[in-house]
Amino acid sequence: MIEDILVGDITGSDNPRDIIIGMNTELQEVHGIGKPFVREIEAVYPLQLGSVLSFEFDDRRHLHMIVCHCLGRNGWSQSDRYVRFGMDYLWRRDGETRQFSIVKIGTGRIGKRDGADHAAIHTAMATSYLPVHLFLYEAGEAVAADIGLRMPATLRAYRRWDMTHGEMSLAA
Fold this sequence. Notes:
Blueprint: E1 2-7, E2 18-24, H1 35-38, E3 52-56, E4 62-69, H2 79-94, E5 100-103, H3 109-114, H4 118-127, E6 132-136, H5 147-150, E7 157-162, E8 166-169
Parallel strand pairs: 1-6, 2-4, 2-5, 5-6
Antiparallel strand pairs: 3-4, 3-7, 7-8
């Protein structure tokens, strides 16, 4: 469920919540928040739709990638379903102990190019059991411009979940 809608930098220190983003199965054409983390995912590849990868983002927050689309035409088919699965997994797993924020999945460059149904994805976010604060990006805003300066030297996935294999702890 969407508790609040905020405009600003989801990675900023004024956001104390874990961060949720969408990711593609191919780990290609990744920009912004997910870019520093992509190189660390190879150990847990291949990824299937609906998987959730969790990373330590900083000393108090985690970054969760919901694998919800493939690249190319029709790559966003049923992505709302995968977003909902991933969010509900996080609710069941960490919903009582952590707070969450999420980007508006499907509205970025790749989502626009490949035809994401951002209204359906937004509905999935709103109907999920997981309470989130939705962060919106305004064009021209310097969101995550200095993310490389704020990132720890080592970024490692600590957990993977998917609908077929369940939850798997990953070596640190």
